[in-house]
Amino acid sequence: MLRAAAQTPNQPEMADALRGSGKIYVVVAVITVVLAxxxxxxxxxxxxxxxxxxxxxx
Length: 58
Hints:
Oligomer: single chain
Protein name: CcmD family protein
Number of domains: 1
Order of helices and strands: HHH
Largest sheet: none
Number of strands: 0
Strand content: under 5%
Mean pLDDT: 85
Shape: rod-shaped
Keywords: Membrane, Transmembrane, Transmembrane helix
Structural class: mainly alpha
Pfam families: CcmD_alt
Radius of gyration: 23 Å
Distance between the termini: 75 Å
Organism: Hymenobacter rubripertinctus
């Protein structure tokens, strides 16, 4: 029993199950949306900080 468990490949079973059912695309889409939102937030924060820095210089 122990040898059988040691001989199984180290592939993540969850990824295979998600890929098999087609839900891997949902996971990829959610990760993409979260990263795009984070990027948008950082860009808008940078613009606000730049505007504040210009106001403080005057």
